[in-house]
Amino acid sequence: MSKIFNRRRLLKLLGMTALGTSVSNCVTPSAAATTNWGYIGKQGPEYWAKLSPDFELCYTGKRQTPIDLQVSSVKSLDKNNQDLLVVKYQPTPLNLINNGKTIQVNYQPGSFIESDRQIYHLLQFHFHHPSEHHINGEEYDMELHFVHRSQAGDLAVVGVFLKAGDFNPNLQTIWDAIPQKPGEENRLKDTIINASILLPAERRFLTYSGSLTTPPCSENVKWYIMETPIEVSREQIAKFTQLFPDNARPIQALNQRVVFESTNAEKT
Ligand SMILES: [Zn+2]
């Protein structure tokens, strides 16, 4: 009990919320960072809620992610209102972390998306294998998550599917710098990347309200899933799966939620 209290007090002192720390759990003290959750056995997704009281939503939540996106049952977004996802990503020096759960690229301030008159700042992006979301019951080889946060603390994640195909030189810049051991970080001041080159040219997306796919499974995360995948080679996929054979949370119930589809997403 006192441990939880101290952690909360520490977060308060640092001016952080529990939700805020969960998206960058490699560098800040939080239950998500210190509790030994994982993807297999007694630390796997079915047990997350039992590992810490902070992870209760992983079991009790009704708006959890990922979900199976059934394209035949989506609704169109209102053209005049929400039907736009503006992406304004700036170049950043490559800063990579192997946090033991995934490879995460931390982003410098100044990049953001705008949707439904809200600005969400890009914090980091990271990878899952296989994909967490499914489309019409099918998984992709991998999924990339761009994690954003608004000034008010709301989260928005843009998901991009990766499928086996052509070698991807943009991904390779990142892959060449992957730290092999959990906890290792690699800061390359002279290697500049831009997250936008990992987005598909066609920006039609599906959107719904969900959660983080890792503990504490916090809800009210806006999801934007690009319908068009990007291609990466089988060798590039293998390089990730050597380190992370399976870091995808299983599909969650849709419950009362509706998935919307953009009709005219902006290309930037
Ligand atoms: Zn993710």
UniProtKB/TrEMBL annotation:
EC class of the enzyme, as a word: lyase
Assigned keywords, A-Z: Lyase, Metal-binding, Zinc
Cofactor names: Zn(2+)
An example molecular function term from Gene Ontology annotations: carbonate dehydratase activity
PANTHER family: CARBONIC ANHYDRASE (PTHR18952)
Function per UniProt: Reversible hydration of carbon dioxide.
Native organism taxonomy: Bacteria, Bacillati, Cyanobacteriota, Cyanophyceae, Nostocales
Protein's name according to its UniProt entry: Carbonic anhydrase
EC number(s) on file: 4.2.1.1
Substrates-to-products reaction catalysed: hydrogencarbonate + H(+) = CO2 + H2O
Keyword flag tRNA processing: no
Similarity comment: Belongs to the alpha-carbonic anhydrase family.
SMART domains listed in its UniProt record: Carb_anhydrase
